[in-house]
């Protein structure tokens, strides 16, 4: 109690809000934001929830490379409010309809110095989160704005536990999540998720990252974090022409971990779709492909006796896809350029010339005749100068052949992106810098013009732009399934239960589940078969791979049935229980039927979870097709011990899920079961 009174005293008495702050509350009154300037004219904001401080007064502003900083000597010149309550429909997604209900506060700041520059702060306050951004107007600014650093802060009011991965490391976003006291965070990528001492859950991220540098969070001590923008080779981290708006800085806030997952803040802060006709040419789907064998070192991307992308091998996958109801077949390693130095420079990749043993024209026809679509692959090795020079012809080829989805790749170490500068020379950039924000949007827009969906790996972070450009269907951006093949260490059992409450808050991930063999390259996967099935519900993406070798599916037909049955497009998503890094149970309703699907996964600890089925339609009977861990199942052995059974259930029932260590459970609820 003493600590709470102290925090409240800080909140009330801080000089940061001494100059008559302007406030705005969320529609339901849950959250309140105060914005003002302190005695030195420094703009600051704070956030409270139900009268209790969440974010203490935190500074705002910029350092510029060619002008004085925008950070002090400001006064509030004007303010305006508006309210919005609307519902919009996703063309595909975790749920069909999304409510967008917020109160907005716009505060115009003006310098008291002779420069008289102006800066607008825009806050949108929801009952479960806050988004804010800066808007640079024309008045008082030169045409060019060159940002050295953003000075945005987030000062947490309480000690907390944090789940985070480090920024500016060589392997981009592909790290296991750290769980540490907030005080031990270094420089973190976003989303960064915290649970405060009082049990409040907050995820820090950004929305609508367009023509700007990605934001990271640096620990300044005492619960205070400052934005650190991703570097640029050009000096300024961001170079723009006014007027423009920055990305939204976001805080998703919930009592429970599950409340973060069902939060729509990131999507709502993006602009409406630019592709109103996308349902005519993109449908969520599942796919198989020439991929996992390469990570197992059974096949190669490059040419030779073990080349995976051969006409004969790809025909096998097309036949399998057609026989088992999969729409797509991914083919990696089909194009010239996979030489010994591809990772080092990427300059030899051709995106229109197949290897001689891969007949792309004949395979496209063969697939089309069987109702299957090839999925293209463009690995760039981070050489976007080479890729952008070929982008138009490469996408034209896919359009002509009916290849309507492409997986792109940017395998390069930190700072290893090769981009063509305005001076005609190659510059080295970061995966989440402004150059790559421009590049990814260029690829997505060029693909949209040809009715092609895009799934980048080694991508820029997801910030909800799939709302505006819904052909940007998924991306990687985390430590994926391939680490189970050769990673040291492989992904531990807690990995997916971390992803749900961290990386997945940003958007869909192409995680490639379903490895029923449970075998990597000479090392076991730390999972059970039932967990591999549950991941199809737990880890969301509108495109989902059945990643294992097709012969392993033939050897496991009964668990494979769930992979064939589970859809990838949902009418609704519910989180039934969960704790970050420990366990989670998610239920999703099929968009195209009355069926529901449930997935539950756990960490290294076995556990029993009681799950009420109240989400089912009352008065209906469902046939529950259950895929659960067997009595001896354990990620350390007997992972293939799976029990497959059926029972009739209704909304009045409560199921007890018994998850093995490293295990899971998947259930298909078929409406009208008898």
Write a structural description.
The protein has 674 residues and is an alpha+beta fold. Helices cover 18% and strands 35% of the residues. The chain is built from 14 helices and 37 strands. Strands 6, 7, 8, 9, 12, 13, 15, 16, 20 and 21 form a ten-stranded antiparallel sheet that branches. Strand 17 and strand 18 form a beta hairpin. The radius of gyration is 25 Å and the shape is globular. Mean pLDDT is 95; it is low at 1-18.
Number of helices: 14
Cα distance spanning the termini: 56 Å
| Strand residue percentage | 35-45%
Task: Note poorly predicted spans.
Answer: 1-18
C-alpha Rg (nearest Å):
25 Å
Structural class determined from secondary elements: alpha+beta
Main β-sheet, in a few words? 10 strands, antiparallel
Summary, kept brief:
This protein has 14 helices and 37 strands. It is an alpha+beta fold and 674 residues long.
Characteristics of this structure?
alpha+beta, single chain, ten-stranded antiparallel β-sheet, disordered N terminus, eight-stranded antiparallel β-sheet, 18% helix, 674 residues
Q: Secondary-structure blueprint of this entry?
A:
Blueprint: H1 2-13, E1 22-25, E2 31-37, E3 43-49, E4 52-59, E5 62-64, E6 74-89, E7 97-111, E8 118-126, E9 129-136, E10 144-150, E11 153-156, E12 160-164, E13 178-181, E14 187-188, E15 192-196, E16 201-207, E17 215-221, E18 224-229, E19 238-241, E20 244-245, E21 248-254, H2 257-261, H3 265-268, E22 285-290, H4 292-295, H5 311-324, E23 328-331, H6 342-345, H7 360-369, E24 373-379, H8 384-401, E25 405-409, E26 417-420, E27 426-429, H9 434-449, E28 453-457, H10 483-486, H11 495-499, H12 529-538, E29 543-545, H13 550-555, H14 557-565, E30 570-579, E31 583-590, E32 596-602, E33 607-612, E34 622-629, E35 642-649, E36 654-659, E37 664-671
Parallel strand pairs: 22-23, 22-29, 23-24, 24-25, 25-28
Antiparallel strand pairs: 1-2, 2-3, 3-4, 4-11, 5-10, 6-7, 7-8, 8-9, 9-20, 9-21, 10-19, 11-18, 12-13, 12-15, 14-17, 15-16, 16-21, 17-18, 26-27, 30-31, 31-32, 32-37, 33-36, 34-35, 34-37
Helix pairs in contact: 5-7, 8-9, 12-14
């Amino acid at each position: 109690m003493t600590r709470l009174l102290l925090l409240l005293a800080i909140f009330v008495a801080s000089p940061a809000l001494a100059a008559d702050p302007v406030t705005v509350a969320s529609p339901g009154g849950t959250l309140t934001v105060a914005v003002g300037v302190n005695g030195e004219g420094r703009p600051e904001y704070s956030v409270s929830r139900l009268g209790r401080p969440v974010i203490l007064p935190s500074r705002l502003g910029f350092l510029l490379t060619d002008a004085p900083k925008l950070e002090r000597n400001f006064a509030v010149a004007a303010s305006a409010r508006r309210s919005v309550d609307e519902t919009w429909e996703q063309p595909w997604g975790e749920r069909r309809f999304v409510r967008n209900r917020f109160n907005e506060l716009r505060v115009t700041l003006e310098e008291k110095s002779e420069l008289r520059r102006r800066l607008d702060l825009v806050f949108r306050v929801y009952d479960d989160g806050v988004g804010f951004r800066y808007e640079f107007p024309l008045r008082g600014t030169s045409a060019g704005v060159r940002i050295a650093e953003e000075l945005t802060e987030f000062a947490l009011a309480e000690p907390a536990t944090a789940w985070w991965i480090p920024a500016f490391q060589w392997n981009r976003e592909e790290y296991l999540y750290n769980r540490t006291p907030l005080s031990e965070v270094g420089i973190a990528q976003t989303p960064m998720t915290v649970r405060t001492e009082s049990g409040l859950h907050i995820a820090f991220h950004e929305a609508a990252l367009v023509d700007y540098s990605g934001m990271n969070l640096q620990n300044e001590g005492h619960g205070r974090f400052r934005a650190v923008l991703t570097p640029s080779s050009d000096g300024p981290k961001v170079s723009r022409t006014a007027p423009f708006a920055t990305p939204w800085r976001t805080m998703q806030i919930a009592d429970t971990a599950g409340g973060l997952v069902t939060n729509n803040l990131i999507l709502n802060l993006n602009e409406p779709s630019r592709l109103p006709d996308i349902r005519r040419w993109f449908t969520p789907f599942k796919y198989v492909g020439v991929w996992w064998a390469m990570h197992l070192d059974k096949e190669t991307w490059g040419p030779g006796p073990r080349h995976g992308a051969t006409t004969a091998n790809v025909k096998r996958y097309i036949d399998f896809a057609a026989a088992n109801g999969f729409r797509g077949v991914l083919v990696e390693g089909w194009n010239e350029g996979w030489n010994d130095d591809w990772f080092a420079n990427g300059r030899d990749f051709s995106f229109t010339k197949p290897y001689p043993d891969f007949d792309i024209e004949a395979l496209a026809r063969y697939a089309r005749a069987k109702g299957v679509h090839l999925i293209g692959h463009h690995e760039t090795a981070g050489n976007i100068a080479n890729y952008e020079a070929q982008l138009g012809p490469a996408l034209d080829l896919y359009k002509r052949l009916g290849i309507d989805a492409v997986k792109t790749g940017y395998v390069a170490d930190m700072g290893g992106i090769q981009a063509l500068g305005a001076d005609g020379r190659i510059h080295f950039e970061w995966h989440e810098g402004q150059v790559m924000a421009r590049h990814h949007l260029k690829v997505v827009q060029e693909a949209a013009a040809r009715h092609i969906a895009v799934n980048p790996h080694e991508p820029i972070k997801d910030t909800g732009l799939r709302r505006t450009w819904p052909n940007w269907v998924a991306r990687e951006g985390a430590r994926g399934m391939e680490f189970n093949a050769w990673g040291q260490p492989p992904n531990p059992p807690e990995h997916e239960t971390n992803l749900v409450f961290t990386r997945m808050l940003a958007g869909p991930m192409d995680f490639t589940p379903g490895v029923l063999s449970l075998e990597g390259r000479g090392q076991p996967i730390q999972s059970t078969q039932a967990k591999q099935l549950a991941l199809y519900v737990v880890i969301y993406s509108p495109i989902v791979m059945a990643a294992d070798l097709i012969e392993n599916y033939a050897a496991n037909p009964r668990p494979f049935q769930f992979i064939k049955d589970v859809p990838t497009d949902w009418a609704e998503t519910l989180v039934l229980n969960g704790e970050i890094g420990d366990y989670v149970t998610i239920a999703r309703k099929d968009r195209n039927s009355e069926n529901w699907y449930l997935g539950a996964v756990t960490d290294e600890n076995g556990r029993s979870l009681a799950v009420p089925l109240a989400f089912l339609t009352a008065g209906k009977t469902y046939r529950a097709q259950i895929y659960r861990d067997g009595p001896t199942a354990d990620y350390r052995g007997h992972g293939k011990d799976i029990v497959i059974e059926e029972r009739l259930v209704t909304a009045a029932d409560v199921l007890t899920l018994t998850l093995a260590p490293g295990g899971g459970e998947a259930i298909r609820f078929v409406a009208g079961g008898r």
